[in-house]
């Protein structure tokens, strides 16, 4: 240390001396130049020999000085250049990822990791797609010597709203009377379709699977009086609640069908609620009055509890006693409906662009996407451009409920429409637009709106996940903050070890507790009903139910490939499967289950879920014995407790399992070490016989009055606890 100080002092002295010599040399040079240049011009070059050229000490000092001055000038020049040169400005935003930050900085990702070293952030958990907090973004920019500029999130250019909307209400003076739209509602199997069948004089009910309506049927019925009524026949099964609600929304009158021998049921109450929500008047049809045990008055009294008051009880609801099977009193029901329609003074605008509602939609092999619709305003003609939901159509073909081609459809008419580019959803609003480009613009706008809503939801979920990650990271820091780095490394190693990939057997066991399914239905409403039932699933703790895909139409090769990928099951409702598809599914080990009745499909799904559950073990008693005496026997050097028993019921089998019961509590379970009758070893002791037995566990002590139960364990298939109702 002393040597270093000494060297520094010598250097300072040397620098001072050298500056003095330099100034002295400059003065002498000026004097010599003045003298010799005037008197002896020839000798000037020879005599003007600089003293530092002859004196080695002065020469060394001057060379050292030049070196120091040169370095000082270079440093000042560099600092001037650095101060004049502006820092690079980097535009950043909140929530940007490591990869995005590296890209805007024009650096490698490793530079970001280097900048974040020796900070509180956990580099082990930091990935290229990890989002950085504001504090870490600032830290990286600062260490890189760059300038920070916060930018707002990029705002999409505000798009013009190009949606199609309903027209304003027309002048009441220009409206024309129209036929009523009547929805028939009620509980399953109360005779709704049979009633409509009699009114139409067709065999609709006979053609339905299991005699149950599976989707909405729309029919135009002409009465003998010349009146026309559009009837909507809705399903009564519990699964089709959404269809009944949709039927109530597009109707003018609801005919509530209640069986006189069955009374008010669950779907009856639900139908009443749908009618009230839609503010639609009711007509009560008490069906099956011809059956023994029919009690119409009981039905009327039960309905009082749901604010449905018949005229007999001072209310305004018309009640008609009918028999849909025999056709009794059906004309009275039709007249009551027409009378109510006249009171409502139903009118519509038959001119201008069409407005309507999709009642049902399905895919036809020859025609493509097809919808059943009710026209509510305007007159629909071939060539009209329609928009419904996120689909549009140029009407190529229209047909009635009998499949007959029609050329125009007026308000209150049910009509089948062909020409859709995509399949609309049941319940979508139908609006007519002026051209195909306009229809495309409407659909694009609706898709854009849906995408924006989805993006907002996704951002919300991402923010929630980010907060969860931050909280978890903070907890982890607190957990490892006060321990030695070696212990911290060991704990992290243990955690990584626990997250090792699952073995094939473990993965197979995990997958067996997940049931991926694919749903295919004939119409949109049926698929909707099945998906709604899936939403009621509440037994994920037993087996997870995963809806991979659902759609309208027959089972396709794509469905089979999807089921193979997810190891799932395909459920088809009122759809077909071609021979080629069946062979492909069999080859790939994919199960395809087809049904025509919805509750059969649900029962099948419950069985499939149950098959994925581990079997439960049940105990089946074989024999019972009571302990009458206790003693011990010597075997070698140890004493073994023995119970003297008498078999009260069944028989004792040595190879089976046994349990010891004392005061109603099981105190031991296991097997026997010996079973003897007198002095003979036996394998079976029957009812009424005495025996001596000892247990495999010698520490258990017997008491007189204890019971010995012989039983066997049987594995019983488990049943899912999910009950869709």
Helix-strand layout with pairing:
Elements: H1 2-39, H2 44-47, H3 51-54, H4 56-84, E1 89-92, H5 98-105, H6 109-115, H7 134-143, E2 147-150, E3 176-177, E4 181-186, H8 192-200, H9 204-207, E5 217-222, E6 228-233, H10 241-249, E7 253-259, H11 266-277, E8 282-287, H12 296-304, E9 318-321, H13 330-344, E10 347-348, E11 355-364, E12 368-377, E13 380-381, E14 385-388, E15 391-399, E16 408-409, E17 414-420, E18 429-433, H14 436-480, H15 485-498, H16 504-511, E19 514-521, H17 524-534, E20 544-552, H18 557-566, E21 569-573, H19 579-588, E22 591-595, H20 598-611, E23 616-635, E24 638-653, E25 657-662, E26 665-670, E27 672-677, E28 680-681, E29 684-686, E30 690-695, E31 707-716
Parallel strand pairs: 1-2, 4-6, 4-7, 7-8, 8-9, 19-20, 19-21, 21-22
Antiparallel strand pairs: 3-10, 5-6, 11-12, 11-18, 12-17, 13-16, 14-15, 14-18, 15-17, 23-24, 23-31, 24-29, 24-30, 25-26, 25-31, 27-28, 27-30
Helix pairs in contact: 1-4, 10-11, 18-19
């Amino acid at each position: 240390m002393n040597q270093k100080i000494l060297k520094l002092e010598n250097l300072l002295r040397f620098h001072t001396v050298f500056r003095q010599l330099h100034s002295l040399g400059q003065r002498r040079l000026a004097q010599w130049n003045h003298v010799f240049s005037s008197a002896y011009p020839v000798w000037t070059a020879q005599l003007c020999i600089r003293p530092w050229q002859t004196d080695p000490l002065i020469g060394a000092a001057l060379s050292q000085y030049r070196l120091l001055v040169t370095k000082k000038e270079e440093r000042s020049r560099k600092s001037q250049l650095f101060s004049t040169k502006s820092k690079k400005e980097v535009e950043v935003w909140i929530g940007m990822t490591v990869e995005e930050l590296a890209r805007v900085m024009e650096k490698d990702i490793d530079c970001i990791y280097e900048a974040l070293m020796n900070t509180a952030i956990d580099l082990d958990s930091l990935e290229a797609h990890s989002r950085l907090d504001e504090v870490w973004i600032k830290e990286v920019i600062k260490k890189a010597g760059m300038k920070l500029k916060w930018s707002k999130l990029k705002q999409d250019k505000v798009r013009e709203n190009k949606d199609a909307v309903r027209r304003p209400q027309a002048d009441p003076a220009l409206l024309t009377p129209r036929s009523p739209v009547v929805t028939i509602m009620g509980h399953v199997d109360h005779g709704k379709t049979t009633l409509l069948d009699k009114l139409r004089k067709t065999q609709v009910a006979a053609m339905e699977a299991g005699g149950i309506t599976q989707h909405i049927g729309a029919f135009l019925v002409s009465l003998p009086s010349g009146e026309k009524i559009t009837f909507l026949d809705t399903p009564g099964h519990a699964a089709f609640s959404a269809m009944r609600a949709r039927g109530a929304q597009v109707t003018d009158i609801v005919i509530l069908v209640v069986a006189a021998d069955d009374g008010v049921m669950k779907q009856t109450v639900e139908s009443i609620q749908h009618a009230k929500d839609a503010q639609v008047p009711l007509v009560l049809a008490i069906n099956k009055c011809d059956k023994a045990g029919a009690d119409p008055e009981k039905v009327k009294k039960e309905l009082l509890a749901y604010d449905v008051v018949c005229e007999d009880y001072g209310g305004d609801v018309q009640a008609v006693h009918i028999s849909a099977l025999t056709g009794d009193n059906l004309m009275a029901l039709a007249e009551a409906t027409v009378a109510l329609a006249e009171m409502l003074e139903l009118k519509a605008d038959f001119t201008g662009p069409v407005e309507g509602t999709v009642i049902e939609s399905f895919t036809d092999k020859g025609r493509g996407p097809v919808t059943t619709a009710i026209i509510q305003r305007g007159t629909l003609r071939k060539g009209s451009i329609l928009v419904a939901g996120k689909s549009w159509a140029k009407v190529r073909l229209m047909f009635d409920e009998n499949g007959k081609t029609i050329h125009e459809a007026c308000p209150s008419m049910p009509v089948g429409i062909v020409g859709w580019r995509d399949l609309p959803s049941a319940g979508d609003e139908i609006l007519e637009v002026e051209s195909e480009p306009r229809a495309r613009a409407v659909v694009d706008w609706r898709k854009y709106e849906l995408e924006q809503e989805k993006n907002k939801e996704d951002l919300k979920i991402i923010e929630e996940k980010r907060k969860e990650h931050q909280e978890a990271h903070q907890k982890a820091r607190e957990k490892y903050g006060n321990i030695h780095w070696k212990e911290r490394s060991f704990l992290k190693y243990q955690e990584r070890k626990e997250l090792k990939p699952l073995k094939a057997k473990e993965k197979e066991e995990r997958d067996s507790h997940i049931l991926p399914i694919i749903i295919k239905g004939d119409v949109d409403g049926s698929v909707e009903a099945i998906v709604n039932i899936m939403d009621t699933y509440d037994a994920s703790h037993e087996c997870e139910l995963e809806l991979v895909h659902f759609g309208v139409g027959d089972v396709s090769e794509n469905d089979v490939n999807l089921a193979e990928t997810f190891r799932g099951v395909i459920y088809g409702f009122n759809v077909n499967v071609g021979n080629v598809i069946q062979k492909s599914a069999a080859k790939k080990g994919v199960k395809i289950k087809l049904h025509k009745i919805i509750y059969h499909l649900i029962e099948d799904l419950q069985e499939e879920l149950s098959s994925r559950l581990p079997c439960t073990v049940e105990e089946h008693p074989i024999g019972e014995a009571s302990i009458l005496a206790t003693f011990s026997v010597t075997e070698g050097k140890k004493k073994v407790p023995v119970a003297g028993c008498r078999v009260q019921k069944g028989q004792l089998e040595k190879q089976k399992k046994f349990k010891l019961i004392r005061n109603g509590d099981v105190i031991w379970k296991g097997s026997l070490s010996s079973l003897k009758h007198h002095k003979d070893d036996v394998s079976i002791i029957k009812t009424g016989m005495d025996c001596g037995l000892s247990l495999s566990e010698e520490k258990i002590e017997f008491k007189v009055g204890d019971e010995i139960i012989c039983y066997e364990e049987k594995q019983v298939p488990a049943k899912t606890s999910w009950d869709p109702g």
